[in-house]
Amino acid sequence: MSSTAEHTPQRGGPLVLDTRTLGRRPGSMREERRTVALEAQIGNDMIALAAGTPVELDLMAEAVIEGVLITGTGTGHAEGTCVRCLKPVGETLELHLTELFAYPGSVTDETTEDDEIPLVEDELIDLEQTLIDLVVLELPLQPLCDEDCPGLCPQCGIDLAIAPEGHSHEMIDPRWAALAEMAGAGGDSVRAEEPAADHPETDSPTEER
Ligand SMILES: [Zn+2]
Ligand SMILES: [Zn+2]
Description:
Elements: E1 16-18, E2 29-37, E3 42-43, E4 47-49, E5 54-63, E6 67-81, E7 88-102, H1 107-110, E8 124-126, H2 128-138, H3 174-186, H4 200-203
Antiparallel strand pairs: 1-8, 2-5, 3-4, 4-6, 5-6, 6-7
Bound molecules: zinc ion (ZN) (2 copies).
Protein backbone atom coordinates (compact mmCIF):
# COMPACT_ATOMS: atom_id res chain seq x y z
CA MET A 1 0.00 0.00 0.00
CA SER A 2 1.34 3.44 -0.82
CA SER A 3 1.87 6.04 1.86
CA THR A 4 -1.66 7.38 1.87
CA ALA A 5 -1.21 8.39 5.50
CA GLU A 6 0.95 11.26 4.34
CA HIS A 7 -1.67 13.09 2.33
CA THR A 8 -3.99 15.61 3.88
CA PRO A 9 -7.52 14.34 4.45
CA GLN A 10 -10.01 15.14 1.74
CA ARG A 11 -13.31 16.55 2.88
CA GLY A 12 -16.04 14.03 2.08
CA GLY A 13 -13.66 11.07 1.95
CA PRO A 14 -15.26 7.85 3.21
CA LEU A 15 -13.02 7.69 6.28
CA VAL A 16 -12.75 11.43 6.88
CA LEU A 17 -14.65 13.08 9.71
CA ASP A 18 -15.36 16.78 9.76
CA THR A 19 -14.85 18.12 13.28
CA ARG A 20 -16.07 21.67 12.69
CA THR A 21 -19.43 21.08 14.37
CA LEU A 22 -17.58 20.20 17.58
CA GLY A 23 -16.34 23.77 17.64
CA ARG A 24 -13.23 22.93 19.65
CA ARG A 25 -15.38 23.05 22.76
CA PRO A 26 -14.07 20.38 25.13
CA GLY A 27 -16.91 18.08 26.02
CA SER A 28 -18.93 18.58 22.85
CA MET A 29 -19.51 15.31 21.08
CA ARG A 30 -21.09 13.86 18.02
CA GLU A 31 -22.14 10.40 17.04
CA GLU A 32 -20.88 9.21 13.72
CA ARG A 33 -22.40 6.13 12.15
CA ARG A 34 -21.51 5.13 8.67
CA THR A 35 -20.77 2.15 6.50
CA VAL A 36 -17.79 2.62 4.24
CA ALA A 37 -16.53 0.45 1.40
CA LEU A 38 -12.78 -0.04 1.67
CA GLU A 39 -10.87 1.56 -1.17
CA ALA A 40 -7.98 -0.89 -0.86
CA GLN A 41 -7.43 -4.28 0.71
CA ILE A 42 -6.22 -4.35 4.31
CA GLY A 43 -4.37 -7.51 5.27
CA ASN A 44 -2.08 -10.09 3.76
CA ASP A 45 -2.05 -13.05 1.38
CA MET A 46 -3.62 -15.41 3.91
CA ILE A 47 -6.45 -13.22 5.16
CA ALA A 48 -7.67 -9.70 4.51
CA LEU A 49 -10.53 -7.31 4.30
CA ALA A 50 -10.83 -7.14 0.53
CA ALA A 51 -11.17 -3.87 -1.34
CA GLY A 52 -14.85 -2.95 -1.42
CA THR A 53 -15.61 -4.72 1.86
CA PRO A 54 -18.17 -2.74 3.83
CA VAL A 55 -16.98 -1.65 7.26
CA GLU A 56 -19.60 -0.48 9.71
CA LEU A 57 -18.41 2.31 11.94
CA ASP A 58 -20.23 3.31 15.09
CA LEU A 59 -18.19 6.12 16.54
CA MET A 60 -18.24 8.97 18.96
CA ALA A 61 -16.18 12.07 18.26
CA GLU A 62 -15.52 14.11 21.36
CA ALA A 63 -13.67 17.40 21.58
CA VAL A 64 -11.07 17.37 24.33
CA ILE A 65 -8.56 20.04 25.26
CA GLU A 66 -5.78 18.58 23.14
CA GLY A 67 -7.81 17.56 20.14
CA VAL A 68 -10.60 15.22 19.18
CA LEU A 69 -11.00 11.81 20.75
CA ILE A 70 -12.52 9.11 18.59
CA THR A 71 -13.99 6.07 20.32
CA GLY A 72 -16.29 3.35 19.11
CA THR A 73 -16.41 0.18 17.08
CA GLY A 74 -15.87 -0.98 13.56
CA THR A 75 -17.08 -4.24 12.07
CA GLY A 76 -15.96 -5.87 8.86
CA HIS A 77 -15.75 -9.34 7.37
CA ALA A 78 -12.33 -10.74 6.55
CA GLU A 79 -11.88 -13.54 4.06
CA GLY A 80 -8.90 -15.78 3.73
CA THR A 81 -7.52 -19.28 3.53
CA CYS A 82 -6.92 -21.91 6.22
CA VAL A 83 -3.15 -22.32 6.56
CA ARG A 84 -3.52 -26.06 7.08
CA CYS A 85 -6.12 -27.23 4.56
CA LEU A 86 -6.43 -24.20 2.25
CA LYS A 87 -10.21 -24.07 2.61
CA PRO A 88 -11.76 -20.60 2.55
CA VAL A 89 -12.03 -18.97 5.97
CA GLY A 90 -14.26 -16.08 6.93
CA GLU A 91 -14.08 -14.06 10.08
CA THR A 92 -15.96 -11.01 11.26
CA LEU A 93 -13.61 -8.55 12.89
CA GLU A 94 -14.72 -6.44 15.82
CA LEU A 95 -12.53 -3.39 16.01
CA HIS A 96 -12.39 -1.13 19.03
CA LEU A 97 -11.25 2.36 18.28
CA THR A 98 -9.75 4.77 20.77
CA GLU A 99 -7.65 7.38 19.07
CA LEU A 100 -6.77 10.93 19.97
CA PHE A 101 -6.31 13.26 17.03
CA ALA A 102 -4.32 16.20 18.35
CA TYR A 103 -4.78 19.80 17.30
CA PRO A 104 -1.68 21.05 15.51
CA GLY A 105 0.35 23.12 17.95
CA SER A 106 -1.28 21.55 21.02
CA VAL A 107 0.97 20.34 23.83
CA THR A 108 0.32 16.78 22.71
CA ASP A 109 1.42 17.64 19.18
CA GLU A 110 4.49 19.55 20.40
CA THR A 111 5.64 16.82 22.78
CA THR A 112 5.27 13.77 20.55
CA GLU A 113 7.10 12.50 17.49
CA ASP A 114 5.64 13.39 14.12
CA ASP A 115 3.98 10.07 13.38
CA GLU A 116 3.17 9.06 16.94
CA ILE A 117 -0.16 10.85 17.27
CA PRO A 118 -2.41 11.65 14.31
CA LEU A 119 -3.46 15.24 13.86
CA VAL A 120 -6.63 17.11 13.16
CA GLU A 121 -5.83 18.72 9.80
CA ASP A 122 -7.96 21.52 8.39
CA GLU A 123 -10.59 20.54 11.01
CA LEU A 124 -10.62 17.06 9.46
CA ILE A 125 -9.80 13.64 10.84
CA ASP A 126 -8.68 10.82 8.60
CA LEU A 127 -9.43 7.43 10.10
CA GLU A 128 -7.72 5.41 7.38
CA GLN A 129 -4.45 4.70 9.19
CA THR A 130 -6.26 4.05 12.46
CA LEU A 131 -8.42 1.49 10.72
CA ILE A 132 -5.50 -0.16 8.92
CA ASP A 133 -3.54 -0.51 12.15
CA LEU A 134 -6.49 -2.02 13.99
CA VAL A 135 -7.35 -4.49 11.25
CA VAL A 136 -3.75 -5.66 10.94
CA LEU A 137 -3.65 -6.22 14.71
CA GLU A 138 -6.94 -8.07 14.69
CA LEU A 139 -6.36 -10.39 11.73
CA PRO A 140 -5.24 -13.87 12.76
CA LEU A 141 -1.60 -14.62 11.95
CA GLN A 142 -2.49 -18.23 11.13
CA PRO A 143 -6.06 -18.34 9.88
CA LEU A 144 -7.71 -21.71 10.54
CA CYS A 145 -11.04 -23.10 9.34
CA ASP A 146 -11.21 -24.82 12.71
CA GLU A 147 -8.95 -24.92 15.76
CA ASP A 148 -8.60 -28.67 15.25
CA CYS A 149 -8.22 -28.63 11.47
CA PRO A 150 -6.05 -31.70 10.75
CA GLY A 151 -4.76 -30.20 7.51
CA LEU A 152 -3.74 -32.08 4.42
CA CYS A 153 -1.97 -35.44 4.19
CA PRO A 154 1.68 -34.61 3.57
CA GLN A 155 1.99 -37.65 1.26
CA CYS A 156 -1.05 -37.42 -1.02
CA GLY A 157 -2.58 -34.03 -0.18
CA ILE A 158 -6.03 -35.35 0.71
CA ASP A 159 -7.98 -33.25 3.22
CA LEU A 160 -7.56 -35.30 6.40
CA ALA A 161 -10.83 -33.90 7.77
CA ILE A 162 -12.74 -35.93 5.14
CA ALA A 163 -10.27 -38.79 4.65
CA PRO A 164 -11.24 -42.23 6.02
CA GLU A 165 -10.18 -42.66 9.62
CA GLY A 166 -6.61 -43.84 10.04
CA HIS A 167 -5.63 -42.63 6.56
CA SER A 168 -1.93 -43.33 6.08
CA HIS A 169 0.57 -44.58 3.57
CA GLU A 170 2.77 -47.65 3.87
CA MET A 171 6.03 -45.85 3.65
CA ILE A 172 9.23 -46.84 5.32
CA ASP A 173 11.42 -44.02 6.42
CA PRO A 174 14.66 -44.37 4.40
CA ARG A 175 16.66 -44.44 7.62
CA TRP A 176 14.68 -47.40 8.94
CA ALA A 177 14.97 -49.11 5.58
CA ALA A 178 18.76 -48.88 5.82
CA LEU A 179 18.68 -50.31 9.35
CA ALA A 180 16.46 -53.17 8.24
CA GLU A 181 18.93 -53.95 5.47
CA MET A 182 21.81 -54.10 7.90
CA ALA A 183 19.89 -56.31 10.27
CA GLY A 184 19.00 -58.58 7.35
CA ALA A 185 22.67 -58.88 6.31
CA GLY A 186 23.50 -59.98 9.87
CA GLY A 187 21.53 -63.17 9.51
CA ASP A 188 18.25 -64.29 11.02
CA SER A 189 15.68 -61.57 10.21
CA VAL A 190 12.94 -62.49 7.78
CA ARG A 191 13.08 -60.78 4.41
CA ALA A 192 9.81 -59.85 2.82
CA GLU A 193 10.89 -60.93 -0.66
CA GLU A 194 11.64 -64.52 0.30
CA PRO A 195 9.05 -65.55 2.85
CA ALA A 196 9.07 -69.30 2.21
CA ALA A 197 12.79 -69.92 1.99
CA ASP A 198 13.81 -69.08 5.53
CA HIS A 199 12.17 -71.87 7.52
CA PRO A 200 11.76 -74.81 5.18
CA GLU A 201 11.47 -77.31 8.05
CA THR A 202 8.18 -75.75 9.30
CA ASP A 203 6.65 -75.86 5.81
CA SER A 204 7.42 -79.47 5.00
CA PRO A 205 5.32 -81.85 7.13
CA THR A 206 2.91 -82.60 4.22
CA GLU A 207 5.81 -83.55 1.97
CA GLU A 208 7.04 -86.20 4.44
CA ARG A 209 4.00 -88.39 4.07
ZN1 LIG B 1 -8.49 -26.09 7.67
ZN1 LIG C 1 -2.45 -39.50 2.10
